[in-house]
């Protein structure tokens, strides 16, 4: 039997785990890639359609005379939906409905307060006008990412959504997008789909071209080039987040099922060689059993998933043995993981003590894959410890909060002395005189 120290998960003590937690952050932008992406952004911003087509041809190998040739019609999306397996189509429809129900429920609402002098104070929640969604589509296929990014924007009331997704070149040299992605877009009701990707797609969405209207915010995952481009346009448009490699932390006691824990660690590790799977135990009996099952399940994975998972576990897999549940929770809170699984006794009560995680999965019957695909909250979550201050994507990220302030003469008279005093203290004498200026009740003003 392998011990945790000799197995697939590297053993670290609690003190070291806490140090590693403090060091976690999203990796800085690679300087060479940053320069290359900046050049792409500038060329597209200056050159519009022509420059964008040149970048698409240079980077993706797709050559077109017009940008319009890279926009898919609704008929193309509908035909793709007809070609996919009926059971998969049913799953996509069901998940869309679940996500829509949840994201509608969590949408912030406008509020209003009326004061004693008749003043009216309002926080109005208004949807963004236009949003861009990036959907990976070259090497990876994530129809779930279509749903988890498009549906929250729709629930927020965003009227215009543009999707960009990189194609694969078919045997005939023409760009093609997998039917499952197109079907998901069709079922979501998306009407503007562009088949190009990379930093050039982010540039087009952020700056616009003659054929593509710029957006107010960009959401959706992508590779390092896409992430760098999003970071560089964040002063021009809103972005969802700069996410690092995916991660799970499983907090488990000795009563947890070692096979289920191993399966969930491996589900995270197969994402990417840089993904991390962390096991925190409050007891000494579970880890060796998990190691046994992890080795068996890893051997059963097909390639290339097996090699990816093995590399991930070797570089980023960890086991932390805590002396108590309280100590285990201290590690989990310090780590602030993207995904936190609680495989412990009375998991629902333990979950109430968690304050820093992207998403919490409560109990043995709630593996992290439930959140990836079917539960309802978006699976776009903060990584690298950013759950200390950031939240997962939701419909709330596609609205703006706007203050509306309406005073009448009596309210202004009541507050004038305070305004004048604060203005004098700040040395802003025009502010002071503005409050003293003679005013008549304007149209629509509060009496």
Tell me, briefly, the overall form. Answer: globular
Rg calculated over all Cα atoms: 26 Å
Q: Give the termini separation.
A: 81 Å
Largest sheet: 6 strands, parallel
CATH homologous superfamily title of the largest domain: Nitrogenase molybdenum iron protein domain
Total beta strands: 17
CATH architecture descriptor name of the largest domain: 3-Layer(aba) Sandwich
Strand order of the largest sheet: 1-14-13-12-15-16
Count helical runs. 16
The CATH topology of the largest domain corresponds to Rossmann fold
Number of domains: 3
Structural class: alpha/beta
Proportion in helices: 40-55%
CATH class of the largest domain: Alpha Beta
What is the arithmetic mean of pLDDT?
Answer: 93
Name the beta content range. 15-25%
Give a nutshell description of this structure.
The protein contains 16 helices and 17 strands. By secondary structure, the chain is an alpha/beta fold.
Structure description:
It is a single chain. The strands form four sheets. This protein has a six-stranded parallel sheet. Strands 2-9-6-5-10-11 form a six-stranded mixed sheet, sandwiched between helices. It has three domains: 149 residues, Nitrogenase molybdenum iron protein domain (Rossmann fold, 3-Layer(aba) Sandwich), CATH 3.40.50.1980; 190 residues, Rossmann fold; 39 residues, no CATH class. The N and C termini lie far apart (81 Å). The longest helix is centred in the first third of the chain and has 30 residues. The N terminus is likely disordered. With 447 residues, it is of the alpha/beta class.
